[in-house]
Each structure stands twice: as C-alpha cells, then as structure tokens.
Amino acid sequence: MPMLLVAKGNHQFKPKQAGAMAALSSILHVLAIYTLFRQLSCSYAFCPAPAARPPPALIISKVGPSDVRNASASLHGNIRHSRTRVAALSIGAEGDEGVPINNDEVEKKPSRPPFPLVLWRFTRPHTIIGSAIAIPSIFLLAAPTYQSFFTLRSFSSLIYAAVPSLFMNLYITGLNQITDVEIDKINKPELPIAKGDLSYSTACIVVLVALVISLAMSVVHPIFSSSGLQLALWGSCLLGTLYSLPPFRMKKHPLLAAFCIVAVRGTIINAGFYSHAVATAFDSVPQITGVLGCLLHDWKCAFSSIFFAIFGIVIALMKDVPDIHGDRTFNIRSFTVRLGQKRVFVTAKNLLALLFGIVGGALMKWTTMAPDLSVTVRRGLVGLCCWVAGWWVNKAAVAVDAEDSEGVYNYYMKLWNLFYLSYLALPFVS
Q: What is the DSSP string of 156-202?
C-alpha cells in the first residue's frame, strides 16, 4: 500500500487548524490510494503483469493552504479532461461547453471497405479481366469477316456467353479462396477473406449464387445454349471444383494442378467458346459439329487452344513461386516446393520466351501463304510483336530475384498483361 508521509516542518498549527489539516490529509490520502488503484487496475487490465515490485510511495513534504488549492485544481482539471474525452467519444465533434476536440485524441476503429470494392477484389480481377478479353477475341477469330462480327446476333451470342463465364470465373476463384483461408493469410494476406473484409459465410453465398446463375444460363436458352458453351462452363466448373475442394484438392499434386489450369485456359475456354461462336453467331460459317470438330478441322481454333494451353502452363508454374512459404507450411507439394523457386522461375520464363519466339517465326512464315496483302501485314506485325514479347520476358526477368516473393509476384502480374495482349492480337492472325 502506498505510504503517505506528512511532515509538519517548522510551522505550528492551532488545534482547529491542526484538525482541518488532518482532515485534508486524510482526504488526500484516500484520493492518492484511489488514483494509484485506478492506474494499477488499468495497467493490469490491458497489459501482461510485470515482475512483482512494490508500488512507489507518494510523498507530500508539506501540506499547506496552497498545496490544498493546487491539489484541488489538479483533481478538478483531471475530472474536466476525463469528461471532455467522454464527450468527444460520444459526440465526436465537440466537448463540454461546445469546445472543439482534437480528433487525434479520439481513437477510431478502422472501417471496412465498401462491399462492391470487396467483391471486386474477391473476383481476383486479373483473372476476370482475362476472361472478359478472351471471349470477344475468340468470337472475332471465329468470324468469317469483321463485318459479320458487328451484327445483333453476334453481339447477343457474345453477351450470352460472357455473362455466365464471368460468373463461373467468380465461382472458381472464390471457391479457391474459401478453401485456402489459412494459406492465404501467409501467401496473400491482402485477399478479402484472409484480411477480414469479407466474412466466410458471405463468401460462400456469393460463390453459390455465381455457380447457380452460370450453370443455369448454360442450358436454359433455346438458341444460345450450345454444346460449346456447356462444355466451357460445366468443364470449368468440374475442374475448378476438383482443383480446390476437399477431398480431391488437386492443387496439392503439381501435375494434376497444372492439368486443371492448362485444360481450362487452353482447350475448354478456347475450343468451347470458338465452337459456341461458330454454332450460334455466324450463319455463313460451315457448321462443324461440336468442339472436337473445331479442334480437328479449324486451324484457328487449334492454334489458339495450343498457344494458350502452353501459356497456361507458364501461369501454373509461375503463380506458385511466390507462394512457397504458405504451400510448404500446409503441405501443398507444388513444383516450387519440390524443385525450388529459382529452377521453376527460370523454367517458366524460358518456356514463355520460347513460345513467343516460335509463334513469331510461324507467323512470319505464314505471311507468304496469306490470301491478300492485309493478312500479310497483320501476321507480320503480330509476329514482330511476339518476338518483342519474348525478348521482354527474358529482359525483365534479369532484375528479378527468384527467392524474393514480392518481386516474383510483380513479374507474374506483368505476364498477365502479356496474356491480355495476346488475346487482343489473336484475331489479327487470320
């Protein structure tokens, strides 16, 4: 218990004064004990208990009328300050007597971002942008002429394909986040569920609604519900579910994980939507039965499927390089965990540079077989762009440390820009 020492000094007090001073000393004694008790209570309520040590003694050397006035003024000031802080917390703008309060003194709880922004981040924007660019580009590639693309039926078929595909993209990426919350807290703590901006139950509702809308649209329309659209949506749904959801969890096995990404980004999306465009949008195109017929008998469909399948391999390899810490912690045996970051990074980078180099050379050769000058010029320009892209892939990788997760992730996101540009250039090869 704190000690209160009162020294009389050389002063002599009359009996009445002595009694008054004794009463004041008792009051100050009680106030001192109360103050220290509150301080100790606040400290132990919010902080771990330190090593035991005696509380300091409160020493008042002299007590006189001036000391009493000072103590009273100090106590009154503390009470006013406490009331002012309470008023500031309650009102947020003014304290007692309408005096403005410094906002720096008021601790504000951080608010969540708006739900539309959280939902946008939940979609993994780089993937949904890829899907939004891919489908119009595939339609343009399948069109017999550019004029045939700009028709009401073509646009109707395109929109009917794009809407459910974006919902399916949301389902696949959302399901992956729902099943990887603990891993994402290590690898991608900025994602909405891992960060706490989106609750688990809300995420499940969003994913289920997206799945129902996507699959329903694939079958309900009497004209636009083609076999190609159904393959693209149902195939993506099946592989996306097997990739993320227990007990399958194909992402734990590197070959199966790569197969899922390659199949979706390569054959299912490109051949599926190409077949859908041919069947529902362009009457002048000779009908080729089903997705397999497009792959076997239409070189444009085969070209886009093979190119983006290989690009999908690069994405599958590169995306795991910065995620090694979380994957290793939760026993996800990716190629990066098995072989090391540097080896996988170099392999993926070289594969993409080689892909652009080969495609650029092929397009240059195809310029000699073009039916007219405009096709020759387009193929030549796209071929040159492919060579430049391959050169950039190697050049940009020089400054990247394969063991620096942030640097690799930034490089990986730049590869998505090449992915977008590849789809934008795709219609000009025909």
A: HHHHHHHHHHHHHHHHHHHHHHHHTHHHHHHH-TTSHHHHTSS-HHH
Helices (H) and strands (E) in the chain, counts: 19, 2
Instruction: Give Cα separations from 61 to 31, 54, 160 (angstroms).
Output: 16, 21, 88
Distance CA 92, CA 87 (A): 7
- Rounded distance, CA 277 to CA 295, Å? 14
Helices 299-318 and 254-263: crossing angle in degrees, nearest 10, is 140
Which tokens sit at 119?
Answer: 């939902």
Q: Cβ neighbours of residue 229 under 8 Å, at least 6 residues apart?
A: 160, 161, 164, 218, 272, 273, 276, 280
pLDDT digits (tens, 9 = 90+) for 341-400: 999 999 999 999 999 999 999 999 999 888 899 999 999 999 999 999 999 999 999 999
DSSP 94: B
Q: Quick: pLDDT tens for 24-81.
A: 455 545 444 444 444 434 444 444 444 444 444 444 444 454 554 454 444 444 444 4
> Of the candidates 76, 79, 33, which has an alpha carbon nearest to the alpha carbon of residue 56?
33
Task: Please name the residues in contact with 12: beta carbons below 8 A apart, sequence gap of 6 or more.
Answer: none
Strands (E) in 330-408, as ranges, are: none
- How far is residue 231's CA from residue 239's CA, in Å, rounded to a whole number? 11
* Pair 224, 280: CB distance under 8 Å: yes
Cβ-defined contacts of 47-52 (< 8 Å, 24+): none
Name the token pair of 348: 């993926």
Q: How does strand 4-6 pair with strand 58-60?
A: parallel
For residue 6, the surrounding DSSP H or E stretch is strand 4-6
Q: Please, are residues 403 and 342 in contact by the beta-carbon 8 Å criterion? A: yes
Distance CA 170, CA 130 (A): 12
**Contact call for residues 386 and 429 (beta carbons, < 8 A):** no
* Closest to 143 measured CA to CA, from 298, 299, 277: 277
Tokens 């489908």 sit at which residue?
Answer: 135
Element (H, E) at 290: helix 290-297
Amino acid in position 358: I
The enclosing H or E element of 320 equals none
Q: In angstroms, rounded to a whole number, what is the distance separating the alpha carbons of residues 351 and 398?
A: 15
